[in-house]
Amino acid sequence: MNKLYIFLKYFFIVVWTVFVVAPFLWALTTSFKDFQSVNGGVTYIPWVDFEPNLEGWKVLIKSPAKGGVDIVEPYFNSLFVTCTASLISIILGTLSAYALSRYTFKAGFVKNNDITFFFISQRIMPPIVLSIPFFLFLSSINLLDSLTGLIVVYIVLLMPIAVWIMVDFFNKVPREIDETALIDGCNPYQAFLKVVLPNSIPGLIVAGMFCIIFGWIDFFFAFILTFTEVQLLPVKIVALNSSVTPWWSLSASALVSVAPLIIVAFIVERYLSKGNLSGAIK
Amino acid sequence: MAKIDLSNISHSYNPNDTNPVYALNPFSMTWENGNRYAILGPSGCGKTTMLNIVSGLVRPSAGKILFDDKDVTDLKTEQRNIAQVFQFPVIYNTMTVFENLAFPLKCRDFSKAKIDERVNSVAETLNLKSFLNSPARKLTADQKQLISLGRGLVREDVAAVLMDEPLTVIDPDLKFRLRRNLKEINEQYKTTLVYVTHDQNEAMTFADNIIVMSEGEVVQTGSPKELFERPNTTFVGYFIGSPAMNLFDSEATSENTVKINSTIIKTNTNLSNLKTKNIKLGIRSEFIKIAKDQNENLVDVNVLKVEDFGNYKLITAKMDNFEIKSKINRETEIPGEKIKLHIPAEKCCIYENNKLI
């Protein structure tokens, strides 16, 4: 029984690992292939099955004048926009979430829960609904095709996620913690900064992770709200495609674009597995 | 340390509604400096609301709070210099035990030397010395509660330490020791301690003054002895003591006698000014004994059961339609099923509309 259990456990782990890792390996080998090796039948192992070359990778850093598609600038644009928007969203989102969790708001029939739901309802709408308003809004303030404009839009998109996660998290942090800090002599701001916030780092990390993921992978708004001045990575990668699909450089760009998320995942995973997420308050 | 005056305090959580529900009905009270008080009452009677009003977490709907005759009603919690310990341990997870204990002093800008001295002294009292450098979240629940207590005791000048059922999570053995510790701390530093509990034994053994509350009302304040012997209301009689006070519906027959069914009982209470017929006689089962040579205040009863509690025997008997309980010595023999019990006149409490007269 026990042996069977161990066997099944490892069997599923192996199946799952193959399922997750295989596409990456496939992309990795493909990125070192050229037209010949991609279209000349199925091959797996470099040097044995096919002769690897770096053409797929070189294209990504070559300037368009030399026949490449320079993704370095879009890459840093994406990093900058995602990180800035995530940071601002987390700061604003955490502050509003704390207020929503600790104070009572009432405007007619609208109460705390309705306000919280209003935030997340922004994400329930299909993005296409928002595209025209965003376009008109950015064009009216002259921020179309600019990093600032993208950051503004991303904050609108990411803050609901931060609010939603943090409200839930703060609700799980007992009020007595704030009250104790007040009794111990903090003013409400100090209580929040010195006591509640350090206790909420796991929540901040989770919220940050989601913001970074959703910011980083967005194609739709990056595509609609930018033209020539500013480009973000997802848009640039799509632009790689041509009449002859360049599988090698598409694979290479897919790998570099997923790299930051893998790093984020590793950091968050380490943090979460330390058990710091468990609310050790009671 | 301070004298705390609560003057005409009342509180409602929905004061603007047409029919506000009062969590605390108006009352006035003074907590003398350096005394030990227990607030005793069933769950939901307003004990915690009262504490929160004193600490400033709740602003009373009406009335004033004075610390040493200074009005602090509108002062914020952090300006009141009060310590409060909650039912469940509240610790700062991200800090060590030392940092936890030092936090109230740090917030008030004490010098490092002073902080070290106070934290060490409190850690000594509470047996936390060997944990000072461990992360607070790694400790057990009762150690965490000690930290909460410690944060309350670390400030010497604190006006009062308010404790909201602080020993709930602590095992009985340690509970007993901690209560003694608290008493010692109170005697040594003359810190005013206010202790909320629903456990009468805890209240009786801890406090020199007990405030009994029921449904948002302060029903009686007094020493454990007063509460036990002369409960102000039938509620207090029922709530304090184990078993609860014996209470019998009765009617007044002269200016100092009442009739329970057909038995006349003499009391020391003047009954000439009674306004209603709703009279109850209350007597503690501790004072009811098997009659020996007395010739008045005797009742005939049928013994239903006798329980031996090790240090005393509890007789439950039937007196016509009433049940009567009597606590007697273990050694006392019960002569038979039909016995006579003696109700001492000086221990009888007479209640009119459930209030002592």
What does this structure look like?
The complex is a heterodimer of chains A (282) and B (357). By secondary structure, chain A is an all-alpha fold. Chain A folds into 2 domains: 2-53, no CATH class; 72-276, MetI-like fold (Orthogonal Bundle), CATH 1.10.3720. Chain A contains 13 helices and 2 strands, in the order ααααββααααααααα. Chain A has helices at residues 2-31, 35-39, 55-61, 72-102, 112-124, 127-140, 147-172, 175-183, 188-199, 201-217, 220-225, 233-240, 247-276, and strands at 106-107, 110-111. A two-stranded antiparallel ribbon of chain A has the order 1-2. In chain A, helix 3 (55-61) crosses helix 13 (247-276), helix 4 packs parallel to helix 7 and helix 4 packs across helix 10. Chain B is α+β, with helices and mostly antiparallel strands and 357 residues long. Chain B has 2 domains: 4-234, P-loop containing nucleotide triphosphate hydrolases (Rossmann fold); 245-356, Nucleic acid-binding proteins (OB fold (Dihydrolipoamide Acetyltransferase, E2P), Beta Barrel). Helices cover 24% and strands 32% of the residues of chain B. Chain B has helices at 47-55, 97-107, 112-125, 141-153, 172-189, 200-206, 224-229, 234-239; strands at residues 4-12, 22-31, 36-40, 62-67, 70-71, 83-85, 161-164, 193-197, 209-214, 217-222, 246-252, 257-260, 263-266, 279-283, 289-290, 298-308, 313-319, 322-328, 338-342, 349-352, 355-356. In chain B, helix 2 crosses helix 3 and helix 2 packs parallel to helix 4 (141-153). The longest helix of chain B is centred in the middle third of the chain and has 18 residues, at 172-189. Classes of the chains: A mainly alpha (282), B alpha+beta (357). Chain A binds chain B through residues 174, 176-177, 179-187, 190, 195, 198-199, 201, 280-282, and chain B through 55-57, 76-78, 81-84, 86, 88-94, 103-104, 107-108, 137, 141, 148, 151.
